[in-house]
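FAQ: What does a ligand-bound record look like?

Like this one, built around adenosine-2'-monophosphate:
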Amino acid sequence: MANNGQAADVGLIGLAVMGRNLALNIADHGFSIAVFNRTTSVMQQFVAENSQTPGALIGCESLGVFLAALKSPRVIIVLVKAGPAVDDVVEQLLAAGLQPEDVVVDAGNSNWNDTIRREKQYAQRLKFFGSGVSGGELGARFGPSLMPGGDPDSWRHLKPIWEAIAAKIDPATGKPIPGAAPGHPVTGGVACTAYLGPNGAGHYVKMVHNGIEYVDMQLISEAYYLLRHLLQLAPDELADIFTRWNEGELDSYLIEITADVLRQRDPTNPKKFLVDCILDAAGQKGTGQWTAGSALDLGVPANSIAEAVFARCMSAVKEERVVAAKKLRGPVPGKRKYPRKIIEAIRQALYCSKICAYAQGFQLMRQAQQDYHWKLDFGTIASIWRGGCIIRARFLQKITEAYQRQPELVNLLLDPYFRRQVRVGQDSWRQVVMLAARHGLPAPAFMSALAYYDAYRAAVLPANLLQGQRDYFGAHTYERVDAPRGKFFHVNWPDPQRPQIEV
Ligand code: 2AM
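The answer part, i.e. the structure of the complex:
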């Protein structure tokens, strides 16, 4: 579409799937947007195919033309492949005449460490800003959850665009407002975006979102697996169970799509269910691994998040598992049908495990904000995840309420609502974990979540023995139960007669 001499409100670089959809979403809200892509033909085709947008789409064949098309200070959204491509684009923008007051928003799946580094590296030359974008292709097109982080002054320039294009929540129901269509965006409602903090805060929160998403998906998959093996039900019968669950406290996008996936017939043979034709080897793009790695770096016990990553790794060694299945003995999952009341027990196990997974994600962010000197608002984070993103769920409203009740809440499990939920569900949860163990059915996320719960509520853990071992072989010292914290002792172990010394 022609520029008509009007300076564009915003620019976007990178017209792959996410970039295209975000650009169309922005144009649907009446903003004029200049677009650039390294491969010019991609840009030309995109502009030609989308001439009927409420806001102008201004195709630019060079970065010089692109910069000249934008209002000052320029707001430029970059959606290129995460990694060195982001630095390439920034350097090219600088060479083309970008100014120090211009804002570059990296909306890709960048690692938060890169965002921290880039903000420092480009300071004085431009304003580097990072934003997580969640919701995949459809979210980008009709309303994603947006997690911005960076310099607050830059946020002032981005805010009107981000608030316009984000998913919207109906304040009366707390649920996403549906119904956006090309050229007809949702207006009104509460936007699923909020300024989260400086430098890498937005990309960090987006990463934790993905880590939680890994566990959420793994837990649902384990529930499916147990239901299937313990009840001998067909996929469409299982789909009905998930549809029913979606009417209660588990109401979420992931449960909804689970029912759809289970109901789907194989397009090449409609007598079969597609789920039975899909190979059980999971892929991953790395954000779950980043989350687990960050938990290890920061010393946060996010064991279920790590377990969900490992569960995908275990699934990926399919050929090894097929060989091992013939050699390693264990209980053979029988043909026994459990009474249907096990369905409700599995639902409770899923809900309790899910609470622990979120508790771990928020515990991780709590530690990260200390280490990175952010001030995260956890109630707001939960509230902007209510719409647009993959983990959107009714449940998130409860998390927002928990942090509203107590902004300094140490762990989600300590909130009265979540404490009660786990109290109600835990007998079933334990029963399900025992059944899984007895029948040799792997349920690593259910089990690790229960281990997290039991460890977190244990005033005494066996680390006393462990410290003894460490002092024995490595003189690593120990603290005593009857001495103040911070006083360390050592015994010359092989000789128990030698006195204990304070070190
Ligand atoms: P392309 O169409 O020219 O490949 C996702 O890969 C998006 O990032 C695409 O729009 C791609 O442009 C763009 N991209 C990847 N690497 C890039 C780079 N080094 N510089 C500019 N754009 C890049």
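Follow-up question: can I read anything off the structure? Yes, for example: The mean pLDDT is 95.
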